[in-house]
Amino acid sequence: MIESSGLKAGMVILLDGELHSVASAGHHAGGGQQAGAVFVKLRHLKTGHIKELRLHLSDRLEDVVLEHKVMEYLYTDGVAFYFMNPDTFDQISLPTKAIGAYEKFLQPNMRIPVQLYEGEPVNIAFPAQVELAVVSTPPGLREHESSTFKSATLDNGMEVLVPQFIKEGDTVRIDTATGKYVERVRREGRRP
Q: Is the pTM of this model over 0.85?
Protein backbone atom coordinates (compact mmCIF):
# COMPACT_ATOMS: atom_id res chain seq x y z
CA MET A 1 0.00 0.00 0.00
CA ILE A 2 1.13 3.52 -0.75
CA GLU A 3 -0.20 6.87 0.41
CA SER A 4 -1.56 9.12 -2.34
CA SER A 5 1.08 11.72 -1.47
CA GLY A 6 3.73 9.23 -2.67
CA LEU A 7 2.25 8.73 -6.15
CA LYS A 8 4.54 9.51 -9.09
CA ALA A 9 4.08 9.34 -12.86
CA GLY A 10 4.78 5.87 -14.22
CA MET A 11 3.68 3.97 -11.10
CA VAL A 12 1.05 1.25 -11.50
CA ILE A 13 -1.74 0.90 -8.96
CA LEU A 14 -4.72 -1.39 -8.46
CA LEU A 15 -7.95 0.63 -8.27
CA ASP A 16 -11.35 -1.09 -8.07
CA GLY A 17 -9.66 -4.36 -9.07
CA GLU A 18 -8.26 -2.86 -12.30
CA LEU A 19 -4.69 -1.86 -13.18
CA HIS A 20 -4.06 1.84 -13.77
CA SER A 21 -0.87 3.68 -14.66
CA VAL A 22 -0.27 7.08 -13.03
CA ALA A 23 -0.03 9.59 -15.89
CA SER A 24 0.48 12.57 -13.58
CA ALA A 25 0.19 13.42 -9.90
CA GLY A 26 0.00 16.99 -8.61
CA HIS A 27 0.12 17.90 -4.94
CA HIS A 28 -1.88 20.82 -3.53
CA ALA A 29 -0.78 21.87 -0.05
CA GLY A 30 -4.10 23.35 0.99
CA GLY A 31 -4.46 26.03 3.59
CA GLY A 32 -6.89 27.46 6.07
CA GLN A 33 -9.81 25.08 6.35
CA GLN A 34 -8.93 23.24 3.16
CA ALA A 35 -6.90 20.08 3.63
CA GLY A 36 -4.15 19.17 1.20
CA ALA A 37 -5.04 17.05 -1.79
CA VAL A 38 -3.46 15.06 -4.60
CA PHE A 39 -4.82 15.46 -8.12
CA VAL A 40 -4.10 12.31 -10.13
CA LYS A 41 -4.60 11.33 -13.77
CA LEU A 42 -4.78 7.57 -14.18
CA ARG A 43 -4.71 5.59 -17.44
CA HIS A 44 -6.53 2.26 -17.44
CA LEU A 45 -3.98 -0.24 -18.77
CA LYS A 46 -6.47 -2.35 -20.74
CA THR A 47 -8.76 0.28 -22.23
CA GLY A 48 -6.49 3.34 -22.27
CA HIS A 49 -9.22 5.52 -20.71
CA ILE A 50 -8.04 8.44 -18.59
CA LYS A 51 -9.58 9.00 -15.16
CA GLU A 52 -8.97 12.08 -13.00
CA LEU A 53 -9.22 11.80 -9.22
CA ARG A 54 -8.89 14.10 -6.23
CA LEU A 55 -7.48 12.20 -3.25
CA HIS A 56 -6.75 13.13 0.35
CA LEU A 57 -3.06 13.11 1.27
CA SER A 58 -3.58 10.16 3.62
CA ASP A 59 -5.62 7.98 1.21
CA ARG A 60 -3.94 4.61 0.72
CA LEU A 61 -3.82 2.82 -2.63
CA GLU A 62 -2.54 -0.60 -3.59
CA ASP A 63 0.63 -0.27 -5.65
CA VAL A 64 1.63 -3.07 -7.99
CA VAL A 65 5.07 -4.24 -9.01
CA LEU A 66 5.11 -5.43 -12.58
CA GLU A 67 7.54 -7.97 -13.98
CA HIS A 68 9.63 -6.64 -16.87
CA LYS A 69 10.61 -9.03 -19.65
CA VAL A 70 12.51 -7.94 -22.75
CA MET A 71 10.64 -9.09 -25.83
CA GLU A 72 11.07 -8.71 -29.57
CA TYR A 73 8.38 -6.88 -31.55
CA LEU A 74 7.14 -8.98 -34.46
CA TYR A 75 4.14 -7.40 -36.20
CA THR A 76 0.65 -5.94 -35.87
CA ASP A 77 -2.60 -7.06 -37.44
CA GLY A 78 -4.42 -3.79 -36.72
CA VAL A 79 -6.13 -5.19 -33.61
CA ALA A 80 -3.13 -6.25 -31.53
CA PHE A 81 0.66 -6.03 -31.45
CA TYR A 82 2.60 -9.29 -31.24
CA PHE A 83 5.83 -9.79 -29.29
CA MET A 84 8.09 -12.83 -28.86
CA ASN A 85 10.25 -13.91 -25.94
CA PRO A 86 13.70 -14.34 -27.60
CA ASP A 87 14.67 -17.10 -25.14
CA THR A 88 11.59 -19.33 -25.21
CA PHE A 89 10.02 -18.15 -28.52
CA ASP A 90 6.66 -17.79 -26.73
CA GLN A 91 4.47 -15.12 -28.33
CA ILE A 92 2.16 -12.66 -26.59
CA SER A 93 -0.15 -9.94 -27.84
CA LEU A 94 -1.11 -6.53 -26.54
CA PRO A 95 -4.20 -4.62 -27.74
CA THR A 96 -3.63 -1.55 -29.90
CA LYS A 97 -4.93 0.71 -27.10
CA ALA A 98 -2.12 -0.47 -24.78
CA ILE A 99 0.51 0.68 -27.28
CA GLY A 100 -1.14 4.03 -28.05
CA ALA A 101 1.04 6.76 -29.57
CA TYR A 102 4.17 4.61 -29.35
CA GLU A 103 2.97 2.63 -32.38
CA LYS A 104 4.90 4.86 -34.80
CA PHE A 105 8.18 4.06 -33.02
CA LEU A 106 7.84 0.27 -33.08
CA GLN A 107 9.93 -1.42 -35.75
CA PRO A 108 10.15 -5.15 -36.53
CA ASN A 109 12.76 -7.03 -34.47
CA MET A 110 13.00 -4.14 -31.98
CA ARG A 111 13.62 -5.37 -28.43
CA ILE A 112 11.50 -3.68 -25.81
CA PRO A 113 10.56 -4.35 -22.16
CA VAL A 114 7.02 -5.67 -21.79
CA GLN A 115 5.36 -5.31 -18.38
CA LEU A 116 3.60 -8.41 -17.06
CA TYR A 117 1.15 -8.74 -14.17
CA GLU A 118 0.66 -12.27 -12.86
CA GLY A 119 2.13 -13.60 -16.11
CA GLU A 120 -0.22 -11.60 -18.37
CA PRO A 121 1.11 -8.74 -20.57
CA VAL A 122 -0.39 -5.37 -19.65
CA ASN A 123 1.86 -2.64 -21.03
CA ILE A 124 5.16 -1.82 -22.69
CA ALA A 125 7.91 0.16 -20.97
CA PHE A 126 8.85 2.25 -23.98
CA PRO A 127 12.18 4.10 -23.82
CA ALA A 128 12.07 7.88 -23.39
CA GLN A 129 14.06 8.36 -26.60
CA VAL A 130 14.66 6.35 -29.78
CA GLU A 131 17.28 6.60 -32.52
CA LEU A 132 16.04 6.87 -36.10
CA ALA A 133 17.81 7.46 -39.43
CA VAL A 134 17.09 10.50 -41.60
CA VAL A 135 15.82 9.26 -44.99
CA SER A 136 15.34 12.62 -46.67
CA THR A 137 15.85 16.29 -45.85
CA PRO A 138 16.70 19.35 -47.95
CA PRO A 139 20.24 20.74 -47.76
CA GLY A 140 20.85 23.23 -44.96
CA LEU A 141 20.68 26.96 -45.62
CA ARG A 142 23.87 27.55 -43.66
CA GLU A 143 26.14 24.73 -42.56
CA HIS A 144 26.46 25.52 -38.86
CA GLU A 145 23.31 27.48 -38.09
CA SER A 146 21.22 25.70 -35.49
CA SER A 147 18.63 28.33 -34.58
CA THR A 148 16.40 27.58 -37.59
CA PHE A 149 14.86 24.23 -38.36
CA LYS A 150 13.94 22.29 -41.50
CA SER A 151 11.73 19.27 -42.12
CA ALA A 152 13.19 15.75 -42.23
CA THR A 153 11.59 12.39 -42.99
CA LEU A 154 12.75 9.53 -40.76
CA ASP A 155 12.98 5.81 -41.57
CA ASN A 156 9.71 5.12 -39.73
CA GLY A 157 7.87 7.61 -41.99
CA MET A 158 7.63 10.37 -39.38
CA GLU A 159 8.35 13.98 -40.28
CA VAL A 160 10.15 16.09 -37.67
CA LEU A 161 11.83 19.46 -37.51
CA VAL A 162 15.63 19.23 -37.27
CA PRO A 163 18.48 21.77 -37.21
CA GLN A 164 20.04 22.92 -40.51
CA PHE A 165 23.21 20.80 -40.08
CA ILE A 166 21.34 17.46 -40.20
CA LYS A 167 21.93 15.55 -43.46
CA GLU A 168 20.44 12.47 -45.09
CA GLY A 169 21.88 9.33 -43.51
CA ASP A 170 22.39 10.97 -40.08
CA THR A 171 20.93 9.24 -37.06
CA VAL A 172 18.89 11.44 -34.73
CA ARG A 173 17.47 10.90 -31.25
CA ILE A 174 13.71 11.55 -30.95
CA ASP A 175 11.71 12.07 -27.73
CA THR A 176 8.95 9.44 -27.77
CA ALA A 177 6.56 11.45 -25.60
CA THR A 178 6.59 14.55 -27.82
CA GLY A 179 7.89 13.20 -31.14
CA LYS A 180 10.45 16.03 -31.27
CA TYR A 181 14.12 16.06 -32.24
CA VAL A 182 16.53 15.88 -29.28
CA GLU A 183 20.02 15.58 -30.79
CA ARG A 184 22.16 14.06 -33.52
CA VAL A 185 23.73 10.72 -32.61
CA ARG A 186 27.47 10.73 -33.10
CA ARG A 187 29.05 7.44 -34.07
CA GLU A 188 32.50 6.37 -32.81
CA GLY A 189 35.36 7.04 -35.21
CA ARG A 190 33.36 9.55 -37.25
CA ARG A 191 34.14 13.24 -37.25
CA PRO A 192 31.34 15.82 -37.37
A: no
